[in-house]
Structures are given as structure tokens and as C-alpha cells.
Amino acid sequence: MVGAFDKEDRNGEVLASSLGELFDGVAERFSALTAVEFGAEQISYGELKQLSDAFAHHLIGDGVSAGDVVAVCLPRSLELSWVLVGILKAGAAYLPVDEAFPLDRQIYMLKDSCVSHVVTRAGILDESVLKRSKPVLLDGLEKRLLVAGGSGALPLVAQGDTAYVIYTSGSTGKPKGVIMPHSVLLNLMSWHAQQARLGQSSRTLQFTPLGFDVHFQEFYGTWITGGTLVMISEELRLNALALLKFLRRKKVSRLYLPFTALRNLVEVALRVSDRSLIPDHLKDIVTAGEQLSIDDQLGAFLKALTNCVLHNHYGPSETHVVSALSLEGNPDNWPAFPSIGRPINNCVFHVLDDNGRVVEEGGEGELYVGGACVAEGYVGLE
User: What's the chain's average pLDDT?
Assistant: First the structure.
């Protein structure tokens, strides 16, 4: 065991009651190390703790109460880190709202989840969105937080309290807000820390938009081992050629990518005959969200790397990650369509037929997931 999980009981259960408490343990151990970097800017673990504490006190002073849902609509920036941790420390849950979403979807999400406050910057959200809850504008706030700090104890947050609300795409109907408690995410991070590869300190790219749950692994999966989260602009995120050069220059060692994005990156990297676009510091590539397939291009890309492992994660928004498979060695020996692997700690799988009976090995059925990986439910439908 490493990093923040040195304090566990004999059954491997995380003793931290909340993600805020978990991060404070990390910050105490790695205080002087860089937690997040964005361009030429950096923030240490100690500074991140100080700012998140001060922001939590600021939110409480502004009327945020334990159990509230606080929307976050911000561009990619260092401040995202202390905003997210600060909301959790205030006893609230965060709701990511993408500024690119249509206006009616933004309004629906805020109304449906009964948002109390919106953390944003001036000019990002339409006034019709802001008037539905109390705005917390970050313009110039960081300097005031550093001066004001915060005093007094922050609320006690229990494992069963909500950490975030993330809305489904709505592709099969009206978007639904998934209510994810601290307990599920703490279990995921405990499993993360126990993995030989994922439990190592890393320089992890922050690629995923906040509206997708994988962002949580990028942030906390990096922090629990004292790694550095490397943030990028939205323009860089969408430019595969520039991103490959960035990965080499910044010596990024871990990537979380949807399979489509990974294939695009691989295709661009292999267009040149030399190794100038191969990000040779990569040690772990984690893909999820779509069925993984191994073709000649992906195999060639991975062979060009040194000792890099491909991790296939599976799990819908209603569970986050529930299973994983790590592929090592020669890609020529991997199946064309790898499985979703085995359940992570404290998760249980059952394959059942239409009558709810267990399917015999080799048979087909529906996958049922249980254990410490299932969300509380949907907003308004718990």
C-alpha cells in the first residue's frame, strides 16, 4: 500500500470518511510536491489544501449547507482543483456544467438537481442560468482567499454523503443525474492504490471533461500517490498532433482516454517514420467508455513504448469503474477484443437471464453489478 492509504484496517477498508479527509492526508504527506500544473503555473499539495480549506469556508459563509449541490462551470485551470476539493470539504456535492451545453440543458440540470450555488467566472454563463441559483464568481477570489484563509472546523462528511452529481447523455431519454456518494469513490481509490501500476506516482494528463466521471480518477488517482496532474487547454485537448508533442515535452507517464481518442492519437503518432511523435515516457494508458479492440496500429504504437501497460476499465456512470483488465507484454499475443476483466475490490458481478436466473458459464445474459460501486440513484428517482 502506498500514499494516502497507509492507514487502513486489516480488511483493506479505507478509514477516511470523505474525499476531503483523504486529500488532507495526502497533502500532509506530500506538502511540498506539485499537485497540479497548467502551463507555467503550478500549485503544491500544501497550497491546494490551504486554498480548498479557504474556499470551503467561503462557500459556507455564502450560504452553502451540508448536502447542497453546487454547480461548477469553469474553463480548464488550476483553480478547478481547489474548487472541487473545497466544495467537498464544505459538505456539498459538485455538479459539472459544461459551458458548451445548450442553454436549455444547463437550465434543466440546475433546476432538476436543485442547485444552491454556481461557481463560475463572469461572462461564462447566461444570466437566465445564473438567476436560478446564487453565483460564486471566482474573478479575483483566489487572492482574497489567501489573505482571508479560514478558521473553525469544517463540516463532518460521511461516506454516504453525495460527492458529485453527473448527468447522463440523455441518448435513451431525458438526462438523469447520477448521485455518487463518497463511499463508492473511496472504494475505487483504495483499489487504485493497491494496483501495482496505478498505485505508482505519475505525471497524469487531465484530458477528460468534468462532465465525464473519469475526471475523478485523473484527479484523485494522481493525488493519492503524490503525483502531478498536468492540465491542458481545450484547444490542445482537441489537437492530436500538438498533444503528442506536449506529452513528450512534459514527460507525461499516464493517460486516461476514451478508445476513440486513443485510436486517433495512435493514427497521428504513426504517420511519421521516426519516433519524434512517440510519447516515450508513457507507462500506463487507461481506456474506457467503448469496447476495446486491438489492431495492428495500436499494437505498433504500444511496441514503440517502453514497458507501457494498457488498462481496460469498464463501468457506466451509475457505478464508475467496476472492472479492469491490464494488458502487458507483446500486443501480438493479446486477443483482438479483450474482456472487461475482473471486478474491482468489493464489487460483485452476476450474469442473469430474462428470468433472473444465473447463466451457465459461456452463456449469454445481462450483467448485474452490486457491492460498493453502485451510485445512490438518480436525482428525483432514488
Answer: 91
| Whole-number pLDDT of residue 143 | 79
Q: Minimal CA–CA distance to 317: which of 174, 220, 209, 213?
A: 213
Q: Which amino acid is at 57?
A: H
DSSP secondary structure string, 58-95? HHHHTT--TT-EEEE---SSTHHHHHHHHHHHTT-EEE
pLDDT value for 276:
81
Q: Where do the DSSP E strands lie in 60-190?
A: 69-72, 93-96, 117-120, 134-137, 162-167, 177-181
Under the banding of pLDDT at 50, 70 and 90, the label for residue 362 is: confident
Total residue count of the chain as it appears in this document: 382
Q: What distance lies between CA 7 and its chain's CA centroid?
A: 23
Cα four-point dihedral sign 203, 225, 371, 94: negative
> How is 23-51 classified by DSSP, letter by letter?
HHHHHHHSTTSEEEEETTEEEEHHHHHHH
Q: What tens digit of pLDDT does each residue of 164-198 get?
A: 999 998 766 788 999 999 999 999 999 999 998 89
Residue 304 near residue 151, CB atoms below 8 Å: no
Using DSSP, state whether 155 is helix, strand or coil.
coil
18: Cβ contacts below 8 Å, ≥ 6 apart? 88, 157, 158, 159, 161, 182, 186
Q: Above 80 in pLDDT, residue 1?
A: no
Q: How many CB atoms are located within 10 Å of the residue 133 CB?
A: 19
For 92-131, how does the pLDDT look when each residue is reduced to its tens digit (9 = 90+)? Answer: 999 999 999 999 999 999 999 999 999 999 999 999 888 8
Closest to 298 measured CA to CA, from 324, 335, 323: 335
Bridge pairing between strands 347-352 and 366-371 = antiparallel
